[in-house]
Design goal:
single chain, mainly alpha, Serine Threonine Protein Phosphatase 5, Tetratricopeptide repeat, 80% helix, 0% strand, Tetratricopeptide repeat protein, Ycf3, TPR repeat, signal
Length: 246
Amino acid sequence: MPRSFAICMAPACGLALLFCIGASRSTLAQDVGWPSCRDARTAPQKVEACTRALPAIRNAKLSERAYLRRGLAFVELRQYDQAIRDFDALIRLNGRVAGYFDNRMNAYRQKGDFAHALADADAAVRLAPGHAFVYRSRGIVHEDLGRYPDSIRDFSAGLQIEPANAGLHVDRGRLLAKLGDINGAVRDFTEALNLDAKWTQALKERGLAYVTLGDPARAKADLRLYLQSEPADADAAAALAVIGSN
């Protein structure tokens, strides 16, 4: 190699190294707003901090986290259109995460847009068919639409994956009761309580089911126990009062 060529390589390497260091520092500077977004506590603080941080973030994963954090904060603030826009951005960045569709589904559902909510719930099931939460979410949307048999099928699918999920037993029990299968509902509520005695909603639902079955003694026992932990529940108190007057 000619000496002149070898000599002029050293400055070039130095410039390249300086360029790489400068680019790295620039990237770090651009992402410096992320910690304030990450550490914000209240929903308004999250919106403010993440809004400041997002334009400067160049790291794709940090962008996902910032959009997710701000989107969830918008849901908490009931600003559903803004939340949906953030979840749209999330899905454009990474359309392979079922949870992102699930979050957007919830925003659509809270807004009352059940058609879009169901489309997102379907997408989440396609992306994560082995996870119970996607079936629960879709079952809830079906319930919103009055499609109770579809809800029960989804809750049952979730229970095939997570048979020890007390919440899914309560969800399915509620729908069974609405369809008139009171004994099936009682079985689900009882299983929920066997799995988690602290799941007090199961006590209320089972107590109301016992009322329908004409079993006032068991209804009173469940509703009284439920009201010990939820004394402000007017519906349960009214049901107990009616039983007591008979």
